[in-house]
Amino acid sequence: MKVIAFARKEQGTGASRRLRNAGQTPGIIYGGTEAPVAITLDHNALYHALKKEAFHSSILDMEVDGKVQKVLLRDFQIHAYKQLVLHADFQRVDPNKSIHVKVPLHFVNAENSPAVKLGGAIISHVAVELDVSCLPADLPEFVEVDLSKIEAGQSVHVSQLVLPKGVTAVVHGDDATVAQAVVTAGATSAEAETK
């Protein structure tokens, strides 16, 4: 995904306000061996890009004044009530160094699981993203969670996920739960009546 930006010399609150009034968003690129660079981006292009899931978890080609570099979106600020992106932070990535990123989880096949079909359970998504570590070239847009075999009352843990080659999960503490099949009170009373 390509993003076009321009280096900016003016900094500070007044300069940022003038940029925003002109339809631009201030930002910064940092990291790596080079010094941080203050940039400006087209607000509308950035606003629409932020709505795309892949923009948040992909290596981006950032073109600044004709020079392209690989970056990762690290942070952004949105106005409290206006549809306005106030600032965006991008980090340079080294293709030979491992990066630590949160990627979204995509839950599939819930409707085919025994928990839903036979047990009347509801699949609860405990996590919506996963911390992963990998080289930039191996970064997945998302990690798929297959729920086709989950039974009522069971959970899916990080250790059960099939991760792409070169990608490892960064788990803090125990083997975290990402989804669970919860049997609702109505389903259990209906089961009791049939017995």
Brief overview:
This protein is α+β, with helices and mostly antiparallel strands and 195 residues long.
CA distance, first residue to last residue: 57 Å
CATH architecture of the largest domain: Beta Complex
Low-confidence stretches: 187-195
Structural classification: alpha+beta
Which value, in Å, is the CA radius of gyration? 22 Å
* CATH fold-type name of the largest domain: RNA Polymerase Alpha Subunit, Chain A, domain 2
Q: What level of helicity do the residues show?
A: 10-25%
Q: CATH H-level name of the largest domain... which superfamily?
A: Ribosomal protein L25, C-terminal domain
Helix-strand sequence: EHEEHHEEEEHEEEEEEH
Number of domains: 2
How many β strands by DSSP? 13
Adjacency order of strands in the biggest sheet = 1-3-2-6-5-4
Count of runs of 4 or more consecutive helical residues? 5
CATH class of the largest domain: Mainly Beta
Mean pLDDT: 88
Largest sheet: 6 strands, mixed, barrel
- What is the overall silhouette? elongated
How much β-strand is present in the residues? 35-45%
Would you write up a description of this structure?
- This protein has 195 residues and is an alpha+beta fold.
- The protein folds into two domains: 2-92, Ribosomal Protein L25, Chain P (Beta Barrel); 99-194, RNA Polymerase Alpha Subunit, Chain A, domain 2 (Beta Complex).
- Helix content is 17%, strand content 42%.
- It is built from five helices and 13 strands.
- It has helices spanning 13-21, 43-49, 53-56, 114-117, 185-194; strands at 2-7, 24-30, 37-42, 60-64, 67-78, 85-92, 99-108, 121-125, 129-134, 143-146, 155-157, 168-169, 177-183.
- The strands form three sheets. The chain has a six-stranded mixed beta barrel. The chain has a four-stranded mixed sheet with strand order 10-7-9-12, with no helix packed on it.
- A hairpin with a 6-residue loop joins strand 2 (24-30) and strand 3.
- The longest helix is centred in the last third of the chain and has 10 residues, at 185-194.
- The N and C termini lie far apart (57 Å).
